[in-house]
# Entry
Amino acid sequence: MSHGFALSGSPFDVLPAAERERLEAAADLAYFADDAEILGPDSPVDTLYVLIKGKVREMAGDEAVAVYQAGDTFDARALVSGATRHRFVCHEEALAHALPRETVLALTESNPHFGAFFFASVSDKLERLAERAGRREMQTLLTATVRELGVRQPVFLDAADTLVDAARTMKTRQLHSVLVRHGDTVGIFTSSDFRDIVLDAIPGNTPLLALTRFELISVDIDAYLFDALLTMTRHDIRRVVVMEHGRPAGVLEQVDLLSYFSTHSHLIAERIDRAGSLDALSDVAGQITRLIAQLYGHGVKAPQLARLVQALNARLFARTWQLVAPPELRSASCLIVMGSEGRGEQILKTDQDNALIHGDSVDPTVAARAADAFSAALARFGYPPCPGRVMVNNPDWRGAPGEWRDRLYRWVTQPTGDALMRLAIFLDAEAVAGDAASLAELKRYLADRLQDDDAFRSRFAHVLDRFDTPGLIAQLLQENTPLDLKKSGIFALVHGCRALALEYGVAETNTFERLERLAEHGVLGRELARDAAEALAFLMTLRLKTGLAAIDDGAAPGNQVVPARLNPLERDLLKDALAVVRRFKTQLRHHYRLGAL
# Structure
């Protein structure tokens, strides 16, 4: 008998029409008064409940371990064994759909996607369900590959061929590039190279061997178009060589990508490079947030968006520095970004985290003026000042290499809470303009200073417990209780990976890349590393979604979300993500013996 059973929500939206009708025909309605026990250790579990209204507490003894509300299901796992260890008690007057055990289990066996909602591992569940979290199913930057787009067939010349041969071939074949063979190696010669050739008056009979770049920037033919776009943006190039089974299969031109997509990060990058004033840069900076919203709406995941934003921001910051800093300072300095910006995990404009390493000969007054102008420009572009003043306009975050070594030494030898956080921020540093070698040298100094210093590593890792990782009990029992995503989950995953990377010499700054390397080194189990990556990706996605909604409402994006206002799918994913964070923290506490500190 039908009772108006709503099958639009997760996980029932993966069922085809026939299976939905089958489940609807078997469904019944159940009503529970306040404090009524719905399931208990002494009662058989022969029903899956789907709440229509009200709240239900899951109790382990006298402790509430979970809360369910409209749209949530319970207790799916107990259906397999037919019994549960916990009690399920009505917290607020509840009405629920009651689904027979036999019908539900039959559907989990015949429909793997439906079964995954209840019985998949945490990482599988996060990965599969996040893909269905309200995204439009369409060819996007996320799903389209280079092979699907198609590439221009490569045209090869020999390294002994001349510049004139290349010009004639490119004109006849209407090409912007040719590939050049030299023995077993392959290089590329492009139309852009002719600019320098004309300026340098290079003779037309010059062999291509002297003019060709043999360090190819390439992508695999089965790579996502998004990766090709990101590669072009990072390297400031207009084409990449496409490889198949280790051999060149063609060339992918920027124009091919721009004709495929309606949102063009490359156009933004070009506008940044052409900007001749801060006014022009301000206009371009505003387009980055609009690009993020468009790509997110088309299904691009938060971690990939973050890396694209990192590449665009690096170009924006570098161009801003060119406009505000005098040439003598630019040539003798290294502008760095840190924190989430350095890791490539900041998507929306939150706060500035940057610093400056400059040569000993630089006039501090000149550096201070440029730093003030740079910080003011970023604030104008929509990047708020850092509350802790981790900014280039703060004298504590700029200086000559000797001054930086002194700072690093103090942070290590006097590891107060503030010093440890400053060190953590610095460890994520990436150069965006100037001499990157000076940053690399400081990181080598720090690594040498900390070699075999187990006591410091434990103190550094202890920052992991700066914030608790709660469950969702209090937030779900009270409608408007917020949860801070950064403090509750993101920080622990980021800092835990940072601590392990410091200990094991992992050079990568991005948390996802750190997780990969730590798993490869056997420091983390592959299952935990995968779970942690999926949990972090979901938390970043949820923060992005709420941040974009805040911007639409005219507010500043933040880290807080109200779990009770999330849909059932998002609540379920959030619960699983926080469970992964707690498991990750437990392993780190054991690794660093944090309980003994």
Summary: The radius of gyration is 28 Å. The chain is about 50% helix and 15% strand. The first strand starts at residue 28 and ends at 32.
